[in-house]
Write a structure and sequence with these properties.
The chain folds into two domains: 52 residues, no CATH class; 174 residues, no CATH class. It is built from eight helices and two strands. Strands 1-2 form a two-stranded antiparallel sheet. Helix 2 packs parallel to helix 6 and helix 4 packs across helix 5.
């Protein structure tokens, strides 16, 4: 088998499900790829193989499998995440909606683990670490899926999760002034993460502003993730229509 003209990847037995004209490593249509012309200092056009892709090209590379089953499966996931995102955004910073959601039950264990993970860095970071880790974990997964597993659609899903984590934190931050939300383990007011953090920074009066900022940032990230996933699905559909 000839190596990919772009990344020099050589197909293996595990790549049997990938169309022969699609590179399993970088996702290009090999029979359509052309090297990029580069002009040297002497103004002579020299054609050399392209060794790097732009970030935009990288993030638009398709997963290894390009077939009807994976397309429809990802389409259903994308539609579900879209409805879920609009449900969160429509209801705003509502603890009953956000705290009672399935996603909150996913975020909570990672939030609690973040306290333990950041404990060696002092009390302030140990308390902030819960909120920080529930954001950094899906962001790290997004980077891993995109750069190490060549699965940008999975990366878009974990980016959506990162945005939802910001939304998940909004009611907790807004409650810093009142400290009324139920806490894990039945902890009292003294165990309220954001109540303590904002008190130490003398910013309790800004709790609602910070909560709204977290909610808006989360909403924007979720919309960007959905737009990214949609473009990947469009590109996959187009390739399928061409017989790849």
């Amino acid at each position: 088998m000839k190596p990919c003209p772009k990344c020099q990847y050589i197909r293996q037995a595990k790549d049997a499900s990938v169309h022969p004209d699609i590179c399993p490593a970088c996702g290009i249509a090999m029979n359509k790829w052309r090297p990029r012309p580069i002009v040297n200092d002497d103004s002579d056009a020299v054609i050399v193989p392209e060794q790097r892709t732009s970030l935009r090209e990288h993030f638009m590379q398709l997963p290894n499998r390009v077939d009807s089953g994976s397309l429809w499966g990802r389409g259903v996931i994308w539609l579900g995440l879209s409805c879920w995102a609009f449900w969160f955004l429509f209801n705003g910073i509502d603890w009953q909606v956000i705290g009672g959601s399935f996603m909150h039950n996913i975020n909570l264990p990672f939030h609690e683990f973040g306290h333990v993970l950041f404990m060696p860095f002092g009390r302030f970071m140990a308390i902030l670490g819960g909120s920080l880790f529930q954001i950094l974990l899906p962001l790290g997964l997004c980077i891993g899926f995109s750069f190490f597993h060549n699965d940008n659609f999975a990366a878009s899903v974990t980016l959506w999760w990162c945005g939802q984590s910001f939304v998940d934190l909004a009611p907790y931050i807004a409650d810093a002034e009142y400290r009324l939300l139920p806490l894990v383990g039945g902890g009292g007011e003294e165990s309220h993460d954001w109540g303590n953090l904002l008190t130490w920074m003398n910013m309790v009066d800004s709790a609602h502003t910070i909560a709204r900022a977290s909610f808006v940032i989360g909403g924007v990230i979720m919309m960007l993730a959905l737009a990214w996933g949609f473009q990947l699905l469009r590109k996959q559909k187009a390739l399928e229509a061409q017989g790849y």
